[in-house]
Design goal:
The protein has 680 residues and is an all-alpha fold. Among the domains are: 89 residues, no CATH class; 73 residues; 139 residues. It is 62% helix and 0% strand. It has 31 helices and no strands. Helix 12 runs parallel beside helix 14 and helix 19 packs parallel to helix 21. The longest helix has 32 residues. The N and C termini lie far apart (151 Å).
Length: 680
């Protein structure tokens, strides 16, 4: 019908597509070139827009779930979506975030806060996140989260900066924390929306003081004013505590009292102290003058931490500065000096400590310059209440100034009248003071009064060493016995304390035998030694049994021997001293026949135990290393000793190496250049 090819194409183009059934007829009609160009541009634009939105969504998802796998990311997103359906206010969201962080699920809490921050202000929830990072020592992550918080239009409040500065103060990297804290603080000072207050200032001071950056500390102090950043008691406490680390640890030795006349003349206020220490002490005194001036005007409240901060700096000075600590306590706590207490002056009570009424005694200033104006002074509004820190400060001051006789007086005033309940550190300071004063009787009384939970091996070492130093007291050994019997309250006896107790038997030999003949003195000394050995017998068995049946889990006796080597060496040193003491009594024949017989038996048991320990230590036998047997306890050797002396009806088999006669062991050690010798 159509001969021309062009007419044929034209006819096909006008034919509806519904009538075409196959081949090319099913194709859509071609559009013009202009239309095709528009379609291509539209499709390209749509593809680019779709690709950009997908990229942006993927980028946001990567930001919010960094480091998470796809499966966990989906699970967390599903949980967050479900939680947000029921958390309808900011308070519930903050509570949920806090509970989630307590479980350690930081990623879920962070995603929830990010999603919820799109519709509201969640500053409290962001604070919880920052606090969690700071408590886990993640400073960089916390600062990064703080910056992200501001980018999401979540304006930080006062608590946000307090959390940041407090976290910087507790950081394990104080040098790094100082730069960040000072930078944020200076940014706050320049801000017009929010200015730092005294809480923020004190927090930054703690950061600077912990890092020892005094330049930054005083630059922060200079930003204080009389309004929102007026220095308070915590400010001065932080400054004084920051000054104290500047004092060198290794100070110059102070001259003894009898050598002070031979040394060069020094100023009265230094009194033998290191000039570098005195520079810090004088700087602290200047600060304390400002504190006292504001205290009298009721602008600053003086509390115990502030008083103790100043007192600890005075402890690093000379004897004059240590003596000023008593004046400091009298000035701020209304506790009169016990060495200058008049007979007619009543002792202050607890009610007077916190009373606002002025007392009859004038308040003595700790520091006074020559050009200081004298005039009527206003009574302070309130005195500081003493506590455990004050008690320790006074005891350390008295020990440094050698005023040990005032220790019991101040102890009675603070404990009995001011109702200060002593802690473990107070008891230790008091025992050190009594040891410096060689007061063994009071030391024994205090140890008997101490609660069982506060007793430690260190307690008995201090007490027994005090009895050893109190060598002019004829009752020193009796006091040492009282202290030693209190050691039964410990789970395991202390070997060093046992050695000090045995040493106390000879310490007061001269006052005990002052009015005796030589023979009587020998018997008196032997009596003390026998009493000490009898008291030490059972505790020493308990000590050795702790080595044989230890609670440590090991695979072999050799593996158990290593962690206990130092303790066993100390116990063996005590055993050797006990053997030497028994040899003295037996050789000098300074006791009854029954006592000497008992000492000989116990001496053999002790010597066998010491020999076996040294054989095991130096590897002289193959029994322990080959068969890997444990070392028998002290009580097992005592049982073997009794069994060897019991009569037998039938011939017994050959005894094992550890049950041989003690004389064979002694001869073998002598041939090997050993140490065991017996006087005959």
């Amino acid at each position: 019908m159509f001969i021309c090819r062009a007419c044929w194409r034209k006819a096909l183009s006008r034919t509806p597509a519904t009538h075409a059934t196959a081949g090319r007829l099913s194709l859509a009609p071609r559009a013009s070139s202009a239309l095709r160009t528009v379609d291509r541009r539209y499709l390209a634009t749509a593809a680019v827009s779709t690709r950009t939105a997908a990229t942006r969504e993927a980028y946001d998802g990567a930001l919010e779930t960094t480091g998470l796998s796809d499966s966990r990311d989906k699970a967390i997103r599903w949980k967050v979506k479900k939680h947000l359906e029921y958390l309808d206010n900011n308070f519930k969201i903050a509570e949920h975030v806090e509970r989630t962080l307590e479980r350690g699920e930081y990623d879920e809490a962070l995603l929830l806060v990010r999603e919820a921050s799109r519709d509201g202000d969640l500053v409290v929830s962001w604070n919880h996140l920052i606090d969690y990072l700071m408590r886990n020592q993640r400073l960089h992550a916390a600062v990064k989260l703080y910056n992200e918080m501001k980018k999401r239009n979540q304006l930080p409040n006062a608590q946000t900066y307090t959390i940041l500065f407090r976290g910087f103060a507790m950081s394990d990297h104080p040098k790094l924390a100082v730069s960040e804290a000072v930078r944020i603080y200076n940014t706050m000072m320049k801000s017009t929306r929010f200015k730092p207050n005294i809480i923020h200032m004190n927090a930054v001071l703690q950061v600077c003081g912990r890092a020892g950056d005094m330049d930054s500390l005083f630059s922060i102090v200079s930003t204080g004013d009389d309004r929102a950043r007026s220095p308070d008691n915590r400010t001065y406490t932080t400054i004084l505590n920051s000054l104290r680390p500047k004092i060198p640890i290794h100070r110059l030795p102070r001259p003894k009292p009898e050598e002070e006349e031979e040394t060069e003349e020094v100023k009265e206020e230094q009194d033998g102290a290191d000039p570098r220490d005195m520079a810090v002490v004088n700087q602290a005194k200047a600060i304390w003058e400002e504190v006292i001036a504001k205290w009298r005007k009721a602008k600053v409240v003086i509390d115990e931490p502030l008083v103790c901060a100043m007192g600890r700096i005075l402890c690093h000075g000379g004897r004059a500065e240590n003596d000023e600590i008593l004046d400091l306590v009298e000035q701020t706590m209304n506790i009169p000096r016990q060495d200058k207490l008049p007979a007619s002056l009543p002792t202050p009570t607890q009610g007077q400590s916190g009373s606002a009424e002025p007392t009859t005694t004038p308040v003595k200033p700790v520091i006074r310059h020559k050009n200081q104006q004298r005039g009527p002074k206003r009574a302070p509004t309130e005195y500081a209440i003493p506590g455990n820190s004050t008690l320790s400060l006074i005891l350390e001051s008295l020990r440094s100034s050698r005023k040990t006789t005032l220790g019991p007086k101040y102890w009675n005033v603070l404990v009995n009248e001011h109702n200060v309940e002593p802690d473990k550190e107070n008891y230790m300071s008091y025992l050190r003071l009594l040891r410096s004063g060689h007061n063994s009787t009071k030391t024994a009384d205090i140890i008997q009064q101490m609660p069982t939970s506060m007793l430690a091996p260190k307690t008995f070492r201090i007490g027994l060493s005090c009895c050893v130093k109190d060598n002019l007291n004829k009752h020193a050994f009796a006091n040492a016995t009282r202290i030693f019997k209190e050691m039964k309250k410990l789970r395991t006896p202390d070997a060093m304390s046992m050695r000090l107790y045995l040493q106390a038997t000879r310490a007061n030999f001269r006052p005990v035998t002052a009015n005796m003949t030589k023979a009587e003195g020998k018997f008196a000394l032997a009596k003390q030694i026998c009493i000490a050995l009898d008291n030490m017998w059972e505790p020493f068995g308990t000590l050795t049994r702790s080595f044989s049946f230890s609670s440590l889990r090991t695979r072999s006796p050799e593996e158990l021997f290593e962690p206990q080597s130092n303790d066993q060496a100390e116990a063996m040193a005590v055993g050797k001293r006990m053997v030497a003491a028994m040899d003295f009594v037996v050789t000098e024949n300074a006791a009854d026949r029954d006592v000497i017989k008992q000492l000989r038996a116990r001496r053999n048991i002790l010597n066998r135990y010491v020999v076996m320990y040294n054989e095991r230590l130096h590897g002289h036998t193959e029994r322990i290393h080959g068969q890997k047997e444990r070392m028998p306890s002290f009580e097992e050797l005592e049982t073997d000793e009794k069994a060897s002396k019991a009569p037998v009806k039938s011939p017994a088999p050959e005894a094992p190496p550890e049950a041989r006669d003690i004389s064979d062991t002694i001869l073998r050690n002598r041939r090997q250049g050993g140490y065991t010798r017996i006087r005959t």
